[in-house]
Amino acid sequence: MKRIIFFSVIAALVSINAQPKNFSLMRGNWTGGVSGNFYWDSFDQNIKEVNGEVKSKIYENGSLMNFKSGYFAADNFLLGALYYQSIDELEVEPDPNPNNNFDKNRSNVWFAGIWSRYYFPVSAVNMALFGELSLGYLAYEQQYQNLQSNIYSRSFTRADGFAYIFGGGISYFLTDEISFELALNFQGSSTSGNVEYNSGVSDPVDISFFNTKILLGIQIYLQN
After folding, report:
1. Kindly report the CA angle at 210 between 220 and 184, in degrees rounded to 5?
2. Taking all residues of the chain, what is their mean pLDDT, rounded to a whole number?
3. pTM metric for this prediction
4. Average pLDDT for residues 76-96, to the nearest whole number?
5. Which of 102, 159, 171, 210 could pair covalently with 191 via S-S, beta carbons 3.0-4.6 A apart?
């Protein structure tokens, strides 16, 4: 049984590597595309302010648009640029302030950076697996409103810094020029900035987060 499994794995690897060339993925070609999603998520946030730490459990739902273009520097390997923007409506469950009457949070995030991807074409079907990595700059804005014991407060947070995105997925080629793709991306970032309150007070803030997104998209390939 072990021998059967071993030789099956070897045959699969040979099948991937020995397949006929996918001309869409050859050196010298260009590609561009768009992907996006609607999502529901939750994460823990720890904001370090001058007067102490503010810990919150944040539930988010939002939309994300992802634009990317690249050049095939080698067969199956491309380098390019990526830009995305997401807008979230957040519900905040404060800790250690569980008695808040009202919390609303709206955030806007955009990212711009380099994009790299490597394809693994699969024989006998018009598809390819891929892995990808992006490194770049992320800007984060957040509007927060709170009502507790009939006292209304509002804050506006701006932060920016380094971010990375990595993941993988599947491209299904409808033609040599068009593919649909499904991708799973993991994103992490470390940003710093300021939070401004309606009282006029401003504090420095550090925000770090890690999240996961599933994206559906379409990619166009231009052969040289």
Report:
1. 30
2. 79
3. 0.75
4. 79
5. 159
User: Which pLDDT does position 17 carry in this prediction?
Assistant: 45
Cis bond before residue 96 (omega within 30° of 0):
yes
Q: Name the residue among 194, 224, 187 with its Cα closest to residue 209.
A: 187
What the chain holds in terms of domains, given with CATH numbers, is: 22-222 (2.40.160.20)
**What is the Cβ-side half-sphere exposure of residue 101, based on CA atoms within 13 angstroms?**
7
Q: Residue 44 has what pLDDT? A: 60
Q: Regarding predicted confidence, which is higher, 138 or 153? A: 138
Torsion angles phi and psi, residue 14, rounded to 5: -65, -40
As a whole number of angstroms, the distance between CA 19 and CA 145 comes to: 56
User: Taking CA 101 as the corner, what is the angle to CA 96 and CA 104, rounded to the nearest 5 degrees?
Assistant: 85
Residues whose CB is less than 8 angstroms from the CB of residue 14 and which lie 6 or more positions away in sequence, other chains included: none
**Cα–Cα distance for residue pair 213/88, rounded to 1 Å:** 13
Q: How many residues does the chain have?
A: 224
